[in-house]
Amino acid sequence: xxxxxxxxxxxxxxxxxxxxxxxxxxxxxxxxxxxxxxxxxxxxxxxxxxxxxxxxxxxxxxxxxxxxxxxxxxxxxxxxxxxxxxxxxxxxxxxxxxxxxxxxxxxxxxxxxxxxxxxxxxxxxxxxxxxxxxxxxxxxxxxxxxxxxxxxxxxxxxxxxxxxxxxxxxxxxxxxxxxxxxxxxxxxxxxxxxxxxxxxxxxxxxxxxxxxxxxxxxxxxxxxxxxxxxxxxxxxxxxxxxxxxxxxxxxxxxxxxxxxxxxxxxxxxxxxxxxxxxxxxxxxxxxxxxxxxxxxxxxxxxxxxxxxxxxxxxxxxxxxxxxxxxxxxxxxxxxxxxxxxxxxxxxxxxxxxxxxxxxxxxxxxxxxxxxxxxxxxxxxxxxxxxxxxxxxxxxxxxxxxxxxxxxxxxxxxxxxxxx
Length: 419
Ligand SMILES: NC(=O)c1ccc[n+]([C@@H]2O[C@H](COP(=O)([O-])OP(=O)(O)OC[C@H]3O[C@@H](n4cnc5c(N)ncnc54)[C@H](O)[C@@H]3O)[C@@H](O)[C@H]2O)c1
Hints:
By secondary structure, the chain is an alpha/beta fold.
């Protein structure tokens, strides 16, 4: 990340934090005022013998949400989204196997929520409309299927699941129960992503035939030794953790061409290294002496039916200069580089002179909150979902094939996305 981008991102983070704090303060203040006034009015009505419960507790028509997993991403990104959505949505239940985490979230943010340590008990509450899943990856499909079968809509953190088979169970359960299932694709809601998407859709790039994406961390293994670095629980390392973001974004820009084959190499060099820990990742709990059986760097490529190729390079730890994140697209009319806070466009002007344009759209509302609001827009207003299950299916098959290729010395592996 360039110095100016880092500065911008830091400033934005500070602003987001400040805004969330302000909202929380306002919400708490209002909650206290409402409670005090209601109590006073109830006392008065009881004294006058006119008390009727429904007069004081009017029907609350907000969408009722139960959250499973009150760890890193829930606190960092979902809580601010629910504060933003408080007029349409109410968090009524919080579940975490570490009960204190759910209790803490109740105390700090959602005072009226019920607390659970077993999500299956939470699903028995028939008044809950939506389940929001923020747990380790292997639980996404298990909890989503149970929730959909219990008649709830589901919003789930990325990745869809730990493998294509598990993901398919989720898509089938959503279809069978006629409920909405949406997986977090927050990068699509970044204003610079939207700018570039519109630029592409307006035909400015021509045909995109080559793309390159990278998210390289120099040091940043999430929860080293914990679920993130245990293949059975996470599905893999940075490819399934960070790669889902970048592959999705690149393919979204490319309008989801059909993938036909992949090739990949994976490396695991930092499991035993004491120069590499989780210091640069705020997600997951670090476990001393825990499991580390995933990769920390992948390099690979995806070939599409239309002849286009997407190259990728993703790491949690790698001896590079600094962390960087980008999608580079090459089209027949123009090229582009996306870096999160910037877009660079490589064009020609009317006199066929080369021209580079720089665009940087400020992020007013954090992208995760935007994605969550979009889910409620679809549920409440019937908006068309930005995320389609076939895209998740493609993603899971690509990731699975990339891992298979890495296990087979980088051999090209064919993909059949429409079985
Ligand atoms: N979209 C993003 O930018 C982004 C960023 C970070 C993480 N994530 C995703 O969010 C998910 C959670 O990641 P995290 O960083 O918050 O992890 P985390 O370990 O910090 O939090 C997970 C929480 O789930 C709880 N949990 C585990 N098993 C449970 C169960 N059976 N029932 C209820 N709770 C249970 C844990 O106790 C923990 O509090 C992962 O799937 C991850 O890939 C997404």
